[in-house]
Design brief:
Layout: E1 4-6, H1 9-41, H2 53-94, H3 104-110, H4 118-129, H5 141-155, H6 160-166, H7 170-208, E2 217-219
Antiparallel strand pairs: 1-2
């Protein structure tokens, strides 16, 4: 009996939940950055260190930025695991259409230059595998918008947190905080589009599984499980 391949709906939910948590923490970090930005615009608050509102909001801001980084790494890991599971299904539906080896599911995120296009290639191939053979086309405006949002979010204002650490004046700190707030907005957009791509691909490949096969299951050889 051939081993069955299941459409990873559970993994899709987990990846989406992680992306949503990352987006929510990014919202909270952006609000903390805005609060800190406004405090820096005013005069220094008098009183002891422990009661200084700037110190309090800075503590929240730093903690949220730490959680944000951790959730970003977790979201990337969960998205990659989901992508690998989806590749199992695509190999059944259109094995010859999968252009990259599985190792690139990891290396595609970290190898310079390759990281600009390899992950998008995997998603394009999955998208095409979800269509009948005469209608298979790689790419879609949703995928293009998603990948552009990911690239912009990953590269725009990436040095803002370091600039904030090195700031020696309130003006420099406020400039870095503005960049961090813009970066948070870009990250939220990229996370939302990533969730949309996850569920669009799950639905497409689910519809593409043969009707003779049990729901959400196909054999690795492409035949119905006996």
């Amino acid at each position: 009996m051939a081993e069955a391949v299941r459409l990873p709906r559970g993994q899709a939910r987990f990846a989406s939940a992680t992306l949503a948590a990352f987006a929510l923490v990014s919202v909270a970090a952006g609000l903390a950055a805005w609060h800190k930005y406004r405090l820096l615009a005013g005069s220094p608050a008098p009183g002891p260190y422990a009661d200084n509102p700037l110190v309090e909001v800075d503590t929240y801001f730093r903690n949220l930025m730490g959680w944000r980084t951790g959730l970003l790494l977790a979201a990337l890991l969960q998205f990659s695991i989901w992508l690998a599971n989806m590749r199992d299904v695509a190999d059944v539906l259109w094995r010859e259409g999968q252009r990259r080896r599985r190792a690139w599911l990891f290396f595609g995120w970290v190898v310079p230059v390759a990281q600009l296009f390899v992950p998008k290639m995997f998603v394009n191939d999955l998208w095409a595998a979800g269509r009948p053979e005469p209608q298979r086309r790689r790419g879609h405006p949703l995928l293009t918008a998603w990948w552009l949002s990911v690239l912009v979010a990953a590269n725009a204002y990436s040095d803002a947190p370091e600039a904030l650490k090195k700031a020696v004046t309130a003006s420099q700190a406020r400039h870095a905080l503005r960049q961090i707030m813009f970066s948070d907005g870009l990250d939220i957009c990229a996370a939302a589009l990533s969730i949309a791509v996850v569920w669009q691909l799950v639905r497409r490949l689910e519809r593409a599984t043969p009707t003779a096969v049990a729901p959400a299951e196909v054999c690795s050889t492409g035949r119905a499980r006996s």
